[in-house]
UniProtKB/TrEMBL annotation, chain A:
Signal peptide: none
Listed Gene3D superfamilies: 2.40.50.100, P-loop containing nucleotide triphosphate hydrolases
Annotated Gene Ontology cellular component terms: ATP-binding cassette (ABC) transporter complex
Domain of life: Bacteria
UniProt keyword list: ATP-binding, Hydrolase, Nucleotide-binding, Transport
Descriptive protein name: Polyamine ABC transporter, ATP-binding protein PotA
Region of interest: Disordered: 1-22
Amino acid composition bias (Polar residues), ranges on this chain: 1-21
GO molecular function ontology, one term from the record: transmembrane transporter activity
Name of the gene: potA
Originating species: Nitrospira defluvii
Pfam families xref list: ABC_tran (PF00005), TOBE_2 (PF08402)
Length: 379, 296
């Protein structure tokens, strides 16, 4: 391809550490009447980073995005982009571009005109517009569709136009509002890969709002988990998934197998934990906590950390006994629903193709795991 | 072929017309009371006036040729000017109003629309008389201006072209607001945000996105204001005095005062031609700018 020799958007050459963060949000608060939609949120985004704000609907994440774009102003706090406070700066004078969830393509303009819109508004010469729009369209693989109207495009193509329309302006930050939510599952997965590769290729700094945890984990360098207007945890996908700071984060990012109980005396490198269901033997947990014994807590485990055995394993690993309730074959793996207490079920997985004994509903089973894999949360 | 096949849409050009007879009463009404009189007026426009005001059925184009007289040209030009000015002012006033209504909370919109239409509850003639009281030498406007010391002597407002345009704008503003409201209401607010986000100033957002996407409403509103404005005769008659004669007054004058029905008919047809030309022009322009409907 002719355009590949000159990469249209090169990543910034400056060293990441010496420059101020591209986005620096300091304690912003946003109230809608009596409701505090965003409550003391602070975070920063580095140049070239893909940063996702993940949370259920109503968490306040869209409000944060709209404040970054300039459609809303925070009631308190400050918001800096490239070291400059953005308070009171209208959207048309901010170095950010938003990719709308519904794309918001101009229905009266062609694909070319849609992508050229921002450049035209900034009075870029038409020769330069021509060149840059073509590059952006090449990047999103829409060459040949310049003259189409948005209504003549498929959902995936509209998504690409929306993306091109933002990145053609080489903004400091591209804001993505549930960018792939309107696409069907297969297209969505393809676009996740493509969006990520465009972002890396162009060195874009992205802030993405989504409620889709898998998508956030696959595309992001860092994830911020938001809930009830607050940011609960910020970290790499692996960090927030494997070391969630709260039960909410643990549950939101994946399956959280839980057992409530009370913490007991110190033993070896951890402490004893007595499940509330007295039929279960005490477990050991690894924790830095110095909470007094007798304090109630919840133990949580990811399904992939749980091993299943037909007989009580002879390891020193913590073990729970249970009974297979349901077997759910899901293609590449099989899910097992295991009853470990009166109304308590855990979900475990076994990859298809392994030679481990298959379990059937009603079979007794022993669940065990490495000490380090369980997380303990205090209410 | 089976007649109750709902799954396949009717093929174009082969419209099934089983319910067409429902349109018959309406068609009959329009034929009897609109087309037939129109044909009659058209015929009269080629007749000539009898000595005592009757119609002499002799074919002549003299009525149309008479209209080339500069006096008629002046009246025609004046009418076009007043109607255009009225349309422009109605648009300038009506667009922000329609936009405000369409973007206000949903439960307020019906109330606001009702307020726009409220003047229609009173007779148009009565409202025009009210304007005479407002604009006359010892009227409300002059009283206020004198009391505030803005002017020393009462302004001459009534019986001026200004009064005519004020009256026309007042009368036809709702016709502008309603179609504009519908168009703005349909405009996706996200498109405005998208343009704003893409470095467009507020003015650029308006000209590049809002106007093109509300063009059907703009055209509709302008047509609805322009047509009754150019043909109006009560407003110029009551508020404009002798100097501000419009084409509607001329028609009324020819029919009722001079009793020259053939000439009045000819003027009527010229007016119709102008209106038609204006409408075609408007819609041509609208067709060139695809509205939000074509875009979806």
């Amino acid at each position: 391809m002719a355009t590949s020799s000159t990469p249209p958007f090169t990543a910034s050459e400056q060293s990441l550490s010496s420059t101020p963060p591209t986005i620096d949000v300091r304690g912003i608060v946003r109230r809608h009447g009596a409701v505090t939609a965003v409550d003391q949120v602070s975070f920063h985004v580095r140049r070239g980073e893909f940063f996702s704000i993940l949370g259920p609907s109503g968490a306040g994440k869209t409000s944060v995005l709209r404040m970054l774009a300039g459609f809303e102003d925070p009631d308190e706090g400050d918001l800096l982009i490239d070291g400059q406070s953005m308070l009171g700066v209208p959207p048309n004078r901010r170095p950010v571009n938003l990719v709308f969830q519904s794309y918001a393509l101009f229905p009266h303009l062609t694909v070319f005109e849609n992508v050229a819109f921002g450049l035209k508004m900034r009075r870029v010469s038409s020769a330069l517009i021509d060149e840059q729009v073509r590059r952006a369209l090449a990047m999103v693989k829409l060459i040949g569709k310049e003259a189409r109207m948005p209504a003549q495009l498929s959902g995936g193509e509209q998504q690409r136009v929306a993306l091109a329309r933002a990145l053609v302006n080489t903004p400091a930050v591209v804001l993505l509002d549930e960018p792939l939510a309107a696409l069907d599952q297969q297209l969505r997965q393809a676009m996740q890969v493509e969006l990520k590769s465009i972002q890396e290729q162009a060195g874009l700094t992205c802030v993405c709002v989504t409620h889709h945890q898998e998508e956030a984990m696959m595309m992001s360098d860092r994830i911020a988990v938001m809930h009830q207007g607050r940011m609960w945890q910020v970290g790499s996908p692996r960090e927030v998934y494997e070391r969630p700071c709260s039960l909410f984060v643990s549950r939101f990012l994946g399956v959280s197998n839980e057992v409530p109980g009370t913490i007991g005396a110190a033993i070896g490198e951890g402490r004893l934990f007595q499940p509330a269901d007295n039929e279960q033997a005490p477990l050991t947990v690894r924790t830095e906590s110095t909470e007094p014994a007798g304090r109630s807590a919840t133990l949580s485990l990811r399904p992939e950390h749980i091993r299943m055995a037909q007989e009580r394993p002879s390891t020193s690993d913590p073990v729970l006994s249970g009974e297979i309730e349901k077997v759910l074959f899901a293609g590449s793996d099989t899910k097992y629903l295991v009853r470990i207490g009166r109304d308590r079920f855990w979900e475990t997985r076994m990859t298809s193709g392994t030679s481990l004994p298959a379990f059937a509903a009603g079979d007794p089973v022993f669940l065990h795991w490495s000490l380090a894999d369980a997380r303990l949360f205090f209410e | 072929m089976p007649s109750h096949d709902l799954s396949s849409p009717p093929k174009p050009g082969q419209s099934s017309c089983r319910s067409c007879w429902l349109a018959a009463p309406g068609l009959l009404w329009m034929g009897l009371f609109f087309l037939a009189p129109l044909a009659l007026v058209f015929a009269i426009s080629f007749a000539s006036r009898g000595t005592y005001g009757g119609i002499v059925w002799e074919f002549t184009a003299a009525n149309y040729l008479d209209l080339w007289h500069p006096l008629y040209g002046r009246i025609l030009g004046q009418s076009l000017w007043y109607a255009s000015l009225t349309t422009a002012i109605c648009f300038s006033l009506g667009f922000p109003l329609a936009y405000m209504i369409a973007r206000s909370p949903a439960r307020w919109q019906p109330v606001l629309l009702l307020l726009v239409m409220l003047p229609f509850w009173t007779n148009f003639l009565v409202r025009t008389y009210a304007w005479m009281i407002v604009l006359r030498q010892d009227g409300l406007v002059n009283g206020l201006l004198l009391a505030l010391g803005i002017v020393d002597a009462p302004l001459e407002l009534l019986y001026t072209p200004t009064a005519v345009v004020i009256g026309l704008v007042y009368g036809y503003l709702p016709f502008m607001v309603l179609p504009l409201y519908v168009a703005v209401e349909r405009l996706d607010p996200l498109l405005v945000e998208a343009a704003w986000d893409l470095y467009a100033s507020r003015w650029a957002v308006f000209t590049q996105v809002v106007v093109p996407l509300t063009m059907p409403g703009i055209v509709g509103g302008c047509v609805l204001v322009f047509i009754p404005s150019i043909g109006s005769f009560i407003t110029p008659d009551l508020l404009g005095g002798a100097r501000s004669m419009m084409i509607g007054n001329l028609i009324q004058h020819e029919y009722l005062v001079v009793r020259d029905w053939p000439l009045g008919s000819a003027v009527s047809f010229v007016l119709m031609a102008i209106v038609m030309a204006a409408v075609v022009l408007y819609y041509r322009h609208a067709a060139r700018t695809p509205g939000p409907l074509e875009g979806r």
